[in-house]
Structures are given as C-alpha cells and as structure tokens.
Write a structure and sequence with these properties.
Largest sheet: 6 strands, parallel
Distance between the termini: 73 Å
Number of helices: 14
Shape: elongated
Length: about 325
C-alpha cells in the first residue's frame, strides 16, 4: 500500500496539516519542520496524489482540447492533427499538460468538460471546431475559465474567445475565381451544416453565384458527409450526372481529394474538363496533380494562435474576443 500524508506525519513527528502545507509549497513552516517532512517523504518514497493536491490547491497545470466531433468524423482529416500539434508544442513550452477529449455526442462532451472543471483537472479549454448550436459555449462560459474556439462564435460570452479565418469571404473569393475563368455551371461539395465553418463556406458559394446572377442548381449542391467514403460517393454522384457541372467548389480537403479520385475513375480531365477549387493543405497541394487551386487552411497557425490566446487569458491579460488569421488564395493549375 502506498504511504499517505498520515504516514509522513507519523514518521516526521508533525501534524497532518504541516505535511499538507509542505506538499502545497506553502511558506508558513519552520525550517526544522520542513526538514523533518522532507526526510520522511524521502524515507517513505512518497509519491503525491496529483488529484488530491489539485482538489486542495489551484488545480492541475493542464488544458483540455476537444473536437466536439466523434473520432469517426475526424479520422483522416489533417486539420485536427496539425492544430493539435501546434497546441501541444506551445503547452509543453508553458509547462502544461494537454488532455485530448473525444466523445460520441455534444452532450457527452459537455458533461465531461463540466466534470473536469469541477474537479480542477483543467485550467482552460481549446475547442477545435465551432458547433452552430452554441449551447456548448453558454454552458462552459458560466464556469469562469477561458475557452478558446477555433472557429466562429456568434454569441456574446464573458470567457469564450474565437480564433478563425474568414470562411465566408474566402468562399466568395474562391467561387468568384471560377466565375472569372468563365465558369457558370458550378457545383459545391460541402460538409454537414452543423458547424459554423460549413455554413459559412456554403453561404459564401451561394452569395458569389447570387452576385453574378447565376441561379442555384440544388442538384449540384451536395452534402458529402464527414468520411472519405461519403465524400467519394458524393463526388462520383456529381460527376456522373448527365447534366454535369463545369467546375466544383470543395469546402474541405477531404472533398477535394474525392473529386480528384472520382475524376480519375470516370476519366474526366482536370482542368480541361473540370475546374476545381477548394480548401486544402500544403501536403495535398504538393501531392495532387495538377495542384488544386484554392486556400491552404493555416491549421498550425490557428492552433498556435488559439493557444497563445488561452495562455494570455490564464496570465490575466485581456485581449480581443475575436481574432482572424489571414489566408492566401492560390489558383495554381486546376483551373483553365
């Protein structure tokens, strides 16, 4: 059985409260008592219970990172890996542990978060995505710890911060790029509309068409799900239509890859027969041929900036509730 603070107090010949003050690095201890307790700790090979110490002090030096999505919907998506890498690197520099949380549902996520906050297991939270239903934010806001969201936040909250790109305007610009190259029949492969990012990217596509007087073709506006399989099935469905689009806007890298693969399987040449733009990442832009036109999502920068914002909050520094990370459009070779 592991020794307890009662054992230390007995061996050192001091009170339990004195042992507790030593373990919690308090200063109101005589040098003699301090030496006795430290000697007893060494003699008994005592390993402090971190949870017990957290409950009687300021808590763990830990932050929690949550995706608000199940692992089934994030598997294979490079955005989450890159953002988490940046967060982990910064947290390590600050001497903080990172707790990664995944759950089957948003309610399950919330309950786990609230549990860890009450137990003083975490001092702050970074959310890797932004649910359109902001009950998550309002519930967490009441606990008074900083919550930084990589994504859009519409409501006004006391302790919730946002680090994001301008997905709406970027999507207008990407669709405009297709139109400027002469395309009128433009489709969109998008993700489910339960996150702000998906809503904004689809809205930007529709806004661009409206500004140019191009009617929406609902058959070309396809929800491609979250998995490689669902994205590929949607891409094949789109490119197999008798009235096939001339160009496609893909709202994330998974959709982009599915378009390239479907085009190969259906013997459709990019860019001669199909113009493609969308959201990608540096690795895909290097591997896909021709290089996809669009925006490489700055996932690492988003992760780094969200962590920077969180640690500024933890150090008591105030700052803007919303921050926008700049992006750059490259039209590359996937457009004629």
């Amino acid at each position: 059985m592991s020794p307890t603070i009662y054992d230390i107090a007995r061996v050192a010949g001091v009170s339990k409260s004195t042992v507790s003050r030593v373990l919690n690095n308090q200063t109101n201890i005589s040098p003699e008592a301090l030496e006795k307790v430290q000697r007893a700790i060494k003699e008994l090979n005592y390993q402090p219970n971190k949870l017990a110490r957290a409950l009687t002090s300021s808590g763990f030096d830990a932050i929690m990172v949550i995706s608000t999505r199940s692992t089934k919907t994030t598997a294979g998506n490079p955005f989450f890996a890159e953002a988490l890498h940046a967060i982990s690197a910064r947290a390590e520099d600050e001497g903080f542990d990172v707790i990664l949380q995944t759950s089957k549902s948003s309610e399950d996520d919330l309950l786990k978060c609230e549990n860890k906050i009450r137990q003083k297991l975490i001092k702050g939270i970074i959310m890797l995505s932004s649910p359109a239903d902001e009950i998550f934010f309002s519930r967490l806001d009441q606990y008074g710890i900083p919550v930084v969201v990589i994504g859009k936040v519409e409501g006004e909250y006391q302790n919730v911060y946002s680090v994001d790109t301008d997905n709406y305007q970027d999507s207008i610009s990407l669709t405009d790029a297709l139109i400027s190259r002469g395309h009128q029949k433009i489709a969109c492969l998008h993700a489910p509309l339960d996150y702000h990012v998906s809503i904004d990217r689809l809205s930007g596509y529709k806004e661009s068409l409206a500004r140019h007087g191009i009617p929406l073709n609902l058959a070309w506006m396809i929800d491609s799900g979250y998995t490689h399989e669902s994205a590929l099935a949607a891409a094949k469905q789109l490119l197999s239509m008798e009235a096939r689009p001339e160009a496609v806007f893909a709202t994330d890298s998974m959709k982009l890859v599915s378009l390239y693969r479907a085009a190969v399987e259906l013997n459709i040449d990019i860019p001669q027969e199909l113009g493609v733009v969308g959201y990608s990442n540096e690795t895909l832009s290097f591997l896909l041929s021709p290089s996809p036109g669009g925006i490489d999502v700055p996932a690492y920068e988003l992760g780094a900036q969200s962590c920077d914002r969180l640690f500024k909050c933890l150090s008591g520094k105030t700052g803007p509730k919303r921050m926008t990370v700049a992006t750059r459009i490259s039209l590359a070779d996937s457009l004629t």
